[in-house]
């Protein structure tokens, strides 16, 4: 805590076998240097994945869009729509669906994780790191 972060990072880089225990420090170190790609990728490599629901990938996307409009608070419909949007390559729409699903109290924290993964798939590393931080802050 009072030592030289650069020196510790260099030691960890020289000893990859230690990184599993110190990945949080290393991720934060990368983020503090504005290297959000390494920050995010380090966290993802060592932190693992939360339990995610199985996405329903059947049904027409237009039907899912209609259902989501009629029942905007239904998480399973929203997730099915998100899955259909990702499958179709409609990433901007998938982001919008996730943002809508994240609104309100008591929403599952894995939604922030899913958002981080979506940003990461686009190479939007700063945003992926911010979504990861949100996921961690909510108990991830």
Question: Can you describe what's shown?
Answer:
This protein is mainly α and 140 residues long. Helices cover 70% and strands 0% of the residues. It has eight helices and no strands. It has helices at 5-14, 19-32, 36-47, 61-70, 75-88, 91-102, 110-122, 125-137. α6 (91-102) packs antiparallel against α7. The longest helix is centred in the N-terminal third of the chain and has 14 residues, at 19-32. The two termini are 23 Å apart.
Q: What is the radius of gyration computed over CA atoms, rounded to a whole number of angstroms?
A: 18 Å
The structure class reads mainly alpha
Query: What can be said about the biggest beta sheet?
Result: none
Percentage of residues assigned to helices: over 70%
Low-pLDDT residue intervals, each spanning 5 or more residues: none
Our count of helices gives 8
> What fraction of residues sit in β-strands?
under 5%
- Helix-strand pattern, N to C? HHHHHHHH
How would you state the average pLDDT, rounded?
A: 89
Query: Could you state the oligomeric state of the chains shown?
Result: single chain
Secondary structure: number of strands: 0
**Cα shape:** elongated
Our measurement of the CA-to-CA distance between the termini, rounded to an integer number of angstroms, reads: 23 Å
């Amino acid at each position: 805590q009072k030592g030289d972060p650069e020196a510790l990072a260099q030691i960890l880089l020289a000893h990859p076998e230690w990184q599993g225990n110190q990945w949080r420090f290393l991720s934060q170190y990368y983020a503090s240097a504005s290297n959000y790609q390494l920050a995010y990728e380090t966290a993802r490599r060592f932190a693992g994945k939360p339990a995610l629901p199985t996405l329903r990938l059947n049904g027409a996307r237009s039907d899912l869009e209609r259902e989501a409009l009629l029942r905007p608070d239904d998480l399973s419909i929203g997730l099915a729509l998100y899955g259909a949007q990702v499958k179709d390559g409609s990433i901007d729409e998938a982001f919008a669906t996730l943002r809508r699903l994240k609104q309100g109290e008591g929403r599952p924290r894995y939604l922030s994780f899913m958002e981080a993964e979506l940003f990461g798939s686009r190479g939007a590393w700063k945003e992926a790191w911010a979504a990861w931080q949100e996921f961690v802050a909510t108990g991830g």
